[in-house]
Amino acid sequence: MKRRVMALLLAGTMVFGLGVSAMAEEAEPIRIGFFCPESAPSAAADGQSSRQSAELAVKMINDAGGINGAQVELVAYDDGLDTKEAANIGEKLTTADDVVAVVSGSYSGPTKVVAPICQDSDMLMVSAYAVHPDVVNAGDLIFSQSFPGSVQGTAAGEFAANTLGAKKVAIVAVDLDFGTEQATYFKAQAYKYGMEIVSEDYIAISDNDMTSVITKIKDEDVDLIYSVNYYEQASEVCRQAALQGLDCAILGTEGADSWQLLETAGEYANGLYITTNMNRDDENANTQAYIDNYRAEYNMEPDMVGASVYDAFQVLFTAIENVGTDTQAMKDYIAGMKDYDTVTGKLLYYNASGSAVKPVQVQQVVDGEYHFAATIDDEAIIDPANFE
């Protein structure tokens, strides 16, 4: 009898031990890599938005119980907008950090460097907002959550012609992939509609004085300035255009979609149009929940950079919840996603190159706030495959 009781107790202990072991295994954290340009002076606001939205995404999923019972851990780095540092980060994430996937919250330069490192290391990466096509061209494990420069530049040309009725255009663009890529495709669309490009200025990201550039443009009698810049330069374009009395529209890009622009440009930003992927007036529950949660957590306004980062994490979370952390399984799941509601609108699908296909939003600054101006949803424009 004693032997039988002891056997039952031993069996129960083994079952309990197996149960504890299984629970411990289930509770292993899911580590996701991340990098953004927090310390770069010219990109610090975007770095802040990126980092905060990454942390918010992880906080929200963990507060809701994690993914299938496992908590998520963020393994985050500051790339300083430096490609050498980005390469070091890519090596750490793919060899030493035990992450299951990577999210880029950085610009095209660092993201282009990390993408092939991830691809060669069998590591899936989702880029939040880098615009250069070389990001997704690194391979089939690389996805882009926002649209590339070809889509955004073409959409801007469409809006300039058909909504603003522009005829004479001056281009002021940052002399980086971000600026040159979008300007190239804008010009192609502008020429299609018979617009005249009367001047082009490509400026260093460190150049924040637009006095001479705007003075030159003033003499050209343009009806539109196409400003392909980040928030610092875009603020100065708006300020100088107002101070010098230019009577023309200004059309910017997602680089101007920042709380920093609204603070820096102040009243001079009113009237500015931007192409972006975030519509603050969208009634979608995901969009409004993100805006509310971001404001509550950080006491500041969110922007498209942060929203795109948040979306990249949501895509990964959904894939992991459904198929686990196997790289190929995640890749196949994400590649097959369709009509997926995100903070930045409905993701229609990812094309064969891994680029998200979704409508381009046009926002306008009204009384110091971004508001809906238009949506461009023609698939001939919003699918990057049409420009390959």
In terms of per-residue confidence, which ranges show pLDDT below 50 for 5 or more consecutive residues? Answer: 1-25
Structural class: alpha/beta
CATH architecture of the largest domain: 3-Layer(aba) Sandwich
CATH class of the largest domain: Alpha Beta
Note the main sheet: 7 strands, mixed
Give the full name of the CATH homologous superfamily of the largest domain: Response regulator
The whole-number mean of residue pLDDT values reads 92
Reported by name, the CATH topology of the largest domain is Rossmann fold
Q: Which radius of gyration do the C-alpha atoms yield?
A: 23 Å
Strand order of the largest sheet: 7-6-8-9-10-14-15
Element string (H = helix, E = strand):
HEHEHEHEEHEHEHEHEHEHHHEEEEEH
Q: Please give the count of helices.
A: 13
Shape assignment: globular
Helix share, percent: 40-55%
Number of domains: 2
- Beta-sheet strand percentage? 15-25%
Distance between the termini: 78 Å
Number of strands: 15
Can you describe what's shown?
The chain has 388 residues and is an alpha/beta fold. The protein folds into two domains: 26-147 and 282-357, Rossmann fold, CATH 3.40.50.2300; 150-276 and 364-387, Response regulator (Rossmann fold, 3-Layer(aba) Sandwich). Helices cover 45% and strands 21% of the residues. The chain contains 13 helices and 15 strands. It has helices at residues 2-26, 44-63, 83-95, 108-120, 149-162, 177-192, 211-218, 231-243, 259-265, 285-298, 304-323, 327-335, 379-382, and strands at residues 30-36, 72-78, 101-104, 124-127, 142-144, 168-174, 196-203, 224-228, 249-252, 273-276, 338-342, 345-350, 356-357, 360-366, 369-376. The protein is globular. It starts with a helix and ends in a 6-residue tail after the last helix. Residues 1-25 have low confidence and may be disordered.
